[in-house]
Amino acid sequence: MSRPQLRAAARIAGRELRGGLSGFRIFLICLALGVAAIAAVGSVRTAIQAGLEREASALLGGDAEAEFTYRFATDEESAWLEENSDRLSEVVDFRSMAVADPDGAAERALTQVKGVDAAYPLFGSVALDPPMPLAQALAGADGLPGLVAAPALLDRLALAPGDVLRLGTQDFRLMAALLREPDGVTASFALGPRIIVATDALEGSGLITTGTLFETAYRLALPPEANVVALGREAQRRFRDAGLSWRDNRNGTPSVSRFVDRLSAFLVLVGLAGLAVGGVGVSAAVRSYIEGKTATIATLKTVGAQGGTIFAIYLMQIGVLALAGVGLGLVLGAGIPWLFAPVIEARLPVPAEFGLYSAPLAEAAFYGLMTALIFTLWPLARARRIRAAGLFRDVTEADRHLPSRRFIALIAALAGVLIAAATWLSDMEFLALWSAAGVLAVLGALLLAARGVRWLARRLAHSALARGRPSLRLALGAVGGPGGETAAVTLSLGLGLTVLATIGQIDSNLRGAIQREIPEIAPAYFFIDIQPDQLDGFLVRTRQSDGVTGIETAPMLRGILTRINGENARAYVRASTGESHWVLRGDRGVTYAATPPDGTEILAGDWWPEDYDGPPLLSFAEEEAREMGLQLGDEVTVNVLGRDLTATIANFRKVEFQDMGINFVMLLNPGALAGAPHTYIATVYADRGVEGSLLRTLGGAYPNITAISVREAIDQVTQALDGLAAAVRYGAAATLLTGFVVLIGAAAAGERRRVFEAAVLKTVGATRARILASFALRSAILGSAAGAVAILAGGLAGWGVMRFVMETDYVFEPVSALAIVAGGALAALLAGLVFAWRPLTSRPARVLRAQD
Questions:
Q1: How does this protein lie in the membrane (predicted)?
Q2: Are residues 74 and 17 in the same domain?
């Protein structure tokens, strides 16, 4: 187009915009809702990341941390740590049973104990109730050392400050409730409430001895001139093979950051699906607006306006409105998190620093503008091809020709750019690509469904089913007729319901997976830290307890897999498989056996002789070995208690972790671990209702032994899933809200058609009740069709996520599916009835005269 043509197009566009926003309210709402959802999620994520960066040292407990598994630092390691720090703090973390005896009846609860020194905490502060310095609380009273405990433990054991609590064989005075610990976020998954004590006070408790399960962390406050990167490299070079794990304040909370990034990325993908729903509304609004401007377009073409000029006029108008919609969405997306910051922070387990962040807003704006452009081009490109003669002959019908090939190619290219950007900006590239493919597939399926519903409605309108039922025949005729709202309703409602159906299927399957993975006969308790000299007595007491149906025991050590065939284990596995593996993340249980344990199935290789006394041999879990690229004969180095042990893989065996029994990835011949200090673990199977008496019997005799309830652990996982599912459901609800707004828009756009239809029907004798019934049936049919497609698409998406992302079985969940169909029919019915009043009350004569 020439410059004069562009100026003329701009003048005409400006004049029409001055006429108001009639027909574009739905456009603005759809665009604003989608952008606001993405901007809000991004703003909260950035606020959390800023909070984690600001409080990095406090959350980690130091500028850097060196961690050892089940041992304290050696003299050499301690000397190096002290030499490179201004201040050094040692923290010991382990599980234990807390015993309270307030009324002569001992009550026990599993706790997570943190032993600290006088330097703790290096950064931040501990909040107690009643308020007092931590050092004063840990000093104790009345000749007993002190401790502080989380309120949950106080509630569970009915304790109050001043009461006595026993850990192992040591009594402590409860001095205060622990309200906040600065480094609590970095703690590992806890199965019990937190207790803090002085490490020195644990010396007589029998809880920290060689072979028991505990971790030590050495937190460093570094001098200002320290180079954290160089120091970390030096620590790894010196002590990695000794089992040292190093973290510093550059990424002190990797698991938290990873969880926040992945959850927010997933929610952004849900938001993009909502934006796609909004895009359908954008397209419908533009198409409706263009239909209303048919006479204007015809007049412009009659006086010589070219198709390009028409296209430019309405693209400019819609571009201005798109900027307004995106701007409104950005204001909402940035303002809502800031406005509700106190409420959000109170629910977050991590610090957040709310403010105005440009990156998430720019990302949301990009998504919004691209979506508006993609869904606007199609109806505008069709309007560009409208011929003036055809317009004047029929001003009620839009041209149904497809856009030209270059516009179709442009739309496809823009969609590709949007998908590529979402994939690049997301931390889950695989899920982003499949989500985009899923949205496109669902849109295609919904378009096919709309065509199928129209075809079926036309057939049924003339069948015996509709004979004698005029309201049904009118509804089927309207659904199957040309134009109408079939496609708009099916698309807008169907995509929103699909997102909700997918979330429902994934949520129910995650919960179902937990229940399916629990065997019919699961252990009641895991017992850990059983000393070798306690094992026989433990077995006798357990077998004599009422309700105990079985018991399994095994020697237990912990080790870190450091090398494979002489190479760094992580590098070796990445080179073999292209990715890391969970076996290499932290320490793993290690055991030994002279003969295969009961039920062992050897899948490859041979078991060693019972009296074998040669070089160390290793039995590895077959599935994990295959995933890591291991072969029979490979040499694996495991660091156990600070010492390297290199063993040759002799066989692969089948390990079923879901049976919740005693299972180990690595099992060695007894001679390989001869002389290594260790403890035993046991799983006890018992009838429901006897757990309390069993715990009292064993806890009283062996106070150092820790019992972990399987049922309570499962409850914790379920609660975590509840929180995750709630966050995802909020995102899905926003998408569904957008779909309902689009549905309202489709109903509003079709109101003019229904006014004319009602006028004709009244003229031939139809009553208001019959007309209303036909409108209601029409909406219910379209809503049911959208719900049916949503069930199919949601089921397929749920299957894909469970099968390829979660790597577990998928079971179709019918209850939520039926609710989706009912909800779709109800939503469409409500939207249709909202705009049924005007057609019902319009006078036929006035309406029909206006059509002359």
A1: Multi-pass membrane protein
A2: no
